[in-house]
Amino acid sequence: MATAFRAGLAGQGLRFSRSELMSLHGATVDDLIGSAPRLLFVGINPSLWTAAVNAHFARRGNRFWPALAMAGIVASTVDASGGMSETDERMVLDAGIGISNIVSTATARADELTTAQLRLGADRLTRLVADLRPQVVALLGVTAYRQAFGKPNAHVGRQPGRFAATAEFEGSELWVLPNPSGLNAHETVSSLAAAYREAAIAAGVVIEP
Q1: Residue range 186-197, pLDDT digits in tens
Q2: pLDDT score recorded for residue 169
Q3: Structural contact between residues 187 and 180, judged by C-beta atoms closer than 8 angstroms
Q4: 56: how many CB neighbours lie within 10 A of its CB?
Q5: Is the CB of residue 182 less than 8 Å from the CB of residue 62?
């Protein structure tokens, strides 16, 4: 179902029943990654809506795409609520941006994930970063980062050392940044944009005027 939505229904203002969404619990979502991303954004895990349309940060009210546009990381705001168009995907990839998650399977809320799931996701992400070698990994959610990587005292911002503090990731900086979910009431589109822009500049991403 998700693949069909992504291919043909982008931007059509889709609606799903609760039962339809709940049936997608545990469904996976494709990473959006080109051959050599400079900046890899990493969410916690997909929402059920994201799983339905196979597009990252697709749930209405999520502030990821407005923040990226405000920051100048992409040229225009993406509406991923009905899936991403090929034009929008190309804009993101051409900007040197990749998107993945710690855990690839969908839940209604991120706090449904267990520490064991987050730790397994961290292992998968570690292998992905080793293959891609982005300049910056921007992990969106400090609480999830603390659990997934066993860093209970970690704070938001650029982390000391390199990704996962291991030599095999030399060249990839790790930034832990605020989660753009509407449930994160401490942040605004403007504050998210400022944080994401700083990481993008560190990654060498060209910022739109």
Answers
A1: 899 999 999 999
A2: 52
A3: yes
A4: 24
A5: yes
CB-based burial of residue 17 (10 Å sphere; 0-12 exposed, 13-18 middle, 19+ buried)? exposed
Could you read off the pLDDT of 133-154 as tens digits, one per residue? Answer: 999 999 999 999 999 999 999 9
* Residues linked to residue 41 through DSSP beta bridges, in sequence order: 99, 138
Q: Could you give the 3-state DSSP secondary structure of residue 4?
A: helix
Residues 6+ apart with CB under 8 A from 200: 39, 71, 73, 136, 207
Any idea what DSSP says for residue 178? -
Helices and strands counted in the chain (H then E): 8, 5
Closest to 85 (Cα-Cα) out of 22, 194, 8, 159: 8
**Cβ neighbours of residue 195 closer than 8 Å, sequence gap 6 or more:** 156, 177, 178
Torsion on CA atoms 70, 146, 117, 119, rounded to nearest 10: 110
- CA separation for the pair 100, 45 (Å, rounded): 8
Alpha-carbon dihedral 167, 169, 175, 177, rounded to 10 degrees: -120
Q: Which two tokens stand for residue 147?
A: 């659990």
State the pTM of this model.
Answer: 0.89
